[in-house]
Specification:
By secondary structure, the protein is of the alpha/beta class. The protein is 27% helix and 27% strand. β9 and β10 form a beta hairpin.
Length: 550
């Protein structure tokens, strides 16, 4: 049996379930906007079958990927989930987008699968465009033909305003590819992964001035990735920033606008110091780490020497207002005193720089401990109610009920709908901890992300990473990366229409089915497609009115 069917980008295609039919009544998009859909196919055969896939259009860039299923032992926490999951059972989930470099495709044999099709009109494309799709067998006989009609609006979306970081784990790249940290091989891989980040709207990169003290068991350590080389001789520190300069140059090449400095104290309480390697008496030693308290005199002296030189270097090599520092990740109630001490320790050296940290307790903000909070999406309401300016949000494994998230077991609409919330509440920044975390929970050991997608049952699959380590050091996207980028494009369109017609006009379209919040929103994929089409038409009308007045 062999059959083909087009379906939309928010459908996850599973072998035993026929995907929904793509309702493509109207498709408009802007020049250089990325639009995706899928060619689903069902093949149940005993023999391998190879077909030729041709997708063609004028003035439209086309990229094809094979949707691959990956295993999940923990798709959802058994005791913490809602009804808006595709499944909570362990199994294989469609997620990896493996680029197709040739027209030949070997079909999967277990039922329904899909080819992912990205289209991106060029700056010359205007008006109606036809995408032609053809599938041929090995004798060049037609198996399937279809066309997709799109309308390209003669404008480009405005630049992204949202500051967006997905934490970059350079050590995981060295571990997976088994290369030395900051060897030429490692630099090439790092650049490939930063390039993909920049292409998909990640415009801030976590920068390991020293190995980031994140997701590390107490007493354990991660592979050293330290961009600042340090020496301690005769009671004085000296610092070499040449590797950091190279890192910043890569970021600049790939449209990264913001630099996020690795945390200055350990996670979950700021009690200890990060792992920092220092050349001392001719030997590289672990001068700081779990064995040194955060408020020790030794670390105070180090910060007093290091931070003025680091900040001077950053001012010279980046825009100061686009550099963000961290104290410690996710401080809780018992950590208030220690976090405050840590902040006081570094505050004199960070004047003029942003300091942000993830937290969920409004009282921390009220007491002035964290001036710029990054708030968990399921704890954000008090911050919204108090109209906290310049608000950031994040989600991770704990945001597993009601709110938007992007676990593999969740429908893609639940991923993309966040654009409506970011727009409504004027969110300034979005943070997630897992761009490429290829370790078990607490970094006890490296893992193969093609075999383990949940950090060895530490986090639901889809939380630890957004990209896969591909051949030749390339980053392979996931469905979740592409869909979140669709949300970022939606946000840009909403903001553009708000500039033209006012925010209330956009909200009236977003909330025509009812009020939107971080926990309440339409769950159907059709809502998102119809909303975006309505917004596109409103932008077009507004621009035509402006043009007619000239």
């Amino acid at each position: 049996m062999l059959q083909f069917q087009l379906t939309d980008s928010l459908e996850k295609v599973f072998p035993k379930k026929q995907p929904r039919v793509w309702e493509r009544n109207r498709i408009s998009l802007f020049q250089k906007e990325l639009y995706s859909f899928q060619l689903a196919y069902q093949y149940e055969g005993l023999e391998n079958k190879t077909v030729q896939l041709l997708v063609e259009a004028d003035a439209v860039d086309i990229k094809l990927s094979q949707v691959k299923k990956v295993p999940s032992d923990l798709p959802a926490y058994p005791d913490r989930h809602d009804d808006n999951y595709l499944s909570i059972e362990p199994g294989l989930y469609p997620d990896l987008l493996e680029p197709l470099t040739a027209e030949k495709v070997q079909l999967e044999t277990d039922g329904w699968n899909a080819i992912w099709i990205d289209i991106q009109p060029g700056s010359q494309a205007v008006g109606n465009q036809t995408i032609k799709i053809a599938v041929l067998d090995e004798e060049q006989q037609s198996l399937y033909q279809e066309t997709v009609e799109i309308r390209v609006l003669p404008h480009e979306l405005p630049a992204q305003r949202l500051i967006h970081t997905e934490w970059f784990h350079a050590d995981c790249l060295a571990d997976y590819y088994q290369v030395e940290a900051f060897s030429e091989e490692h630099w090439n891989i790092v650049e490939n992964f930063i390039q993909i980040a920049g292409e998909y709207g990640i415009n801030m990169i976590l920068t390991p001035i020293f190995t980031q003290p994140l997701d590390t068991e107490v007493g354990g350590e991660r592979t050293t990735v330290q961009l600042v080389q340090m020496e301690y001789e005769n009671g004085k520190y000296s610092f070499d920033f040449s590797l950091l300069k190279r890192w910043l140059e890569i970021c600049e090449r790939h449209h990264i606008q913001y630099i996020e400095i690795a945390h200055l104290f350990t996670q979950w309480g700021a009690e200890f110091t990060p792992k920092i390697m220092v050349q001392e008496n001719g030997q590289l030693t672990k001068k700081f780490g779990w064995h040194v308290k955060a408020d020790s005199e030794e670390y105070r002296a180090f910060l007093q020497a290091f931070l003025p030189e680091l900040t001077a270097f950053l001012k010279e090599n980046w825009q100061q207002e686009q550099v963000y520092f961290h104290i410690s990740d996710e401080p809780g109630g018992p950590n208030l005193e220690m976090y405050s001490k840590a902040k006081e320790l570094v505050a004199p050296y960070l004047k003029g720089f942003h300091v942000i940290d993830a937290l969920s307790n409004y009282s921390f903000y009220e007491k002035g401990v964290v001036a710029k909070p990054v708030v968990a999406s399921n704890h954000i309401e008090p911050f919204i109610d108090h109209q906290v300016p310049g608000l950031w949000t994040y989600y991770c494994c704990s945001q597993n009920v009601d709110v938007s998230n992007r676990f593999m077991a969740m429908p893609s609409a639940r991923n993309r709908v966040i654009a409506t919330q970011l727009f409504k509440y004027d969110i300034e920044g979005f943070l997630h901890w897992g761009y490429n975390f290829y370790n078990s929970q607490f970094s006890k050991e490296p893992i193969d992300p093609y075999k383990i997608t949940d950090a060895k049952k530490g986090f639901p699959s889809g939380d630890p990473f957004l990209v896969y380590p591909g051949k030749k050091g390339e980053a392979y996207p996931s469905i979740r990366l592409k869909v979140f980028y669709q949300a970022l494009q939606d946000l840009r369109a909403f903001q553009w229409l708000a500039e033209l017609e006012g925010k209330e006009e956009v909200l009236s379209k977003i909330e025509h089915q009812g009020e939107i919040s971080f926990t309440k929103y339409p769950q159907e994929a059709s809502y998102l497609f119809e909303l975006r089409e309505e917004v596109n038409q409103a932008i077009e009308k507004a621009l035509n009115r402006v043009a007619s007045r000239r």
